[in-house]
Amino acid sequence: NAHKKMRQWQQWSSETIPSLIKPFLTYQWLSRNFWHHIDYEQPECSYFIACFPLYLDIWLVPGLQMVDLAVCPCAPAALQLLQMGYFPSAPLGPTLAVSLQLLSLVRQVFMHMPPNISAWCESLEAYLASMGYKVDTKEGICQRFSNAYHWYCILEISVNEYV
């Protein structure tokens, strides 16, 4: 497990985050700082590595939905998700993607109060449950949301350094 976490950390820091800086700035500018939704068309590649289901947390229309992504070397999952307005919980095979709007809000909230990811995730799960959505994993969304939030913050820091 420690070896897997180390590989994932290396993937995030050496490949995924650097590759997302310019697309993130582009999406942020086109969406007017996440205010508007940007239409996304999946790439048409002839070489697919994998397709997998993905739970998306949709901020303006709260809920969870499954999405199939066609992942290939020219269109990694993280890049496709970013271009759709979401951030992945893992660099290569994410099982949760979180709205950039929601992550931006959480980051602002945590700048003005002590961060508490567990309480935030429990509140989000309770909110989704009240709307009829059920998170189907025994650990809930806390670990995956925490991972997405952490690397989103690293991306924001990297963008600020880039600019």
TrEMBL record:
Pfam families membership: CxC1
Domain CxC1-like cysteine cluster associated with KDZ transposases stretches: 51-129
InterPro entries named among the record's database cross-references: CxC1
Protein name: CxC1-like cysteine cluster associated with KDZ transposases domain-containing protein
Source organism of this protein record: Pisolithus tinctorius Marx 270
Lineage: Eukaryota, Fungi, Dikarya, Basidiomycota, Agaricomycotina
